[in-house]
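Risk mitigation, structural track. In case the binding assays with zinc ion fail to produce interpretable data, a predicted complex structure has been prepared as a fallback.
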Amino acid sequence: MHKQSSKSGSGVLIRGSLITLKRKCGKPTCSCVDGEPHTTPALSYSVKGKTHMLTLRSSDVPMIRQALNNYKVAAAELEKKAISGIRRTTLNIMNAKRRD
Ligand SMILES: [Zn+2]
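Fallback model:
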């Protein structure tokens, strides 16, 4: 029934940002010596204040992009719930104080 959901990691959440690493490979005959450096897509993410880097294959990028967006959507949803929780608690406390 949900065969599509396992495809391209549609339910996966990833926090971080997609970046492009640029480097020269060091081969003296390579076109990167004088021209454009090689580029590698990578995911930069931090855990407990430490930044990590995961280099990707270009074929991974669409899935990572999707998972980063999934995280944004979920985080926005959580933020909304937290704010409404604060609002509700504020009202409860104000009402309780009024009754005192
Ligand atoms: Zn090169």
